[in-house]
């Protein structure tokens, strides 16, 4: 594949932006045993005989939602979606036991075998991009292509930027709300302070910290402001799973065996074509990570969207992702 580095048009650009495909409902769903306490909810959408893909949600600790299906032409793609361990409709709820990156990669493989898929396109944004890349590095022979948004390599500088100092200077009002549940003497390590409370036995403190952790991400996710924050960030059941699992992964550096594991192992991606769609003003997962990845992974098209932040639902991001999934049909 040619590897142009491109910058997408802004609101007054040269092409009409694509929108999401029509809403569509699953044609199959179920729960997949894992050999542990976890059972993974999955669903299939689109065309039963279409080109296979798997859609990975963010977080960790997020969940699938109907919008994720709409980045793919439902008449041509066979889409598989799964709620990762401990979140969404997977069980047990908010569980951290046997919940690591490697467990999730095993679950993706388990689902592929269960569905009888030989190779598939892997789609993910934010943490979904981390998981997609890790899966592709471990199982390159099972990945036909990668379509990624908001690249997150899960490195210490990225975590420090968002949870300690960096994004805080751009959103001081939201950061003040994020700091509020944590005593001043513990604010030198916000992730550790949150982890103590999110995994503690004080249910009221857990709920309060889960809400604040989730609101911080919701407040910074989009250039369109707080009104673009997904409604799920206001739901206690969602926020507890989201915050607990996300913090669990982050204080453990994603369970990677070494810092910068994805870039260090990017040679495994050499024969996998890919598309990266990245908002220029993404505060949650800044553009530098996507830029670094493209230096190590030469087989990716890189689309910088000039008028977008982190959210997958911003118009320029939708346009880039829909064009990418259409292009992947031609492989």
Give a brief description.
This protein has 331 residues and is of the alpha/beta class. 36% of the residues lie in helices and 16% in strands.
List its salient traits.
alpha/beta; Rossmann fold; 2 domains; nine-stranded mixed sheet; globular
What would your notes on this structure say?
This protein is of the alpha/beta class. The chain has 2 domains: 5-155 and 255-328, Rossmann fold (3-Layer(aba) Sandwich), CATH 3.40.50; 156-254, no CATH class. It has helices at 101-115, 127-138, 156-163, 167-170, 172-179, 190-198, 203-220, 236-251, 261-264, 287-296, 315-328, and strands at residues 5-7, 28-33, 39-46, 51-56, 77-82, 120-125, 143-149, 274-279, 300-305. A hairpin with a 5-residue loop joins strand 2 and strand 3. 46% of the residues are buried.
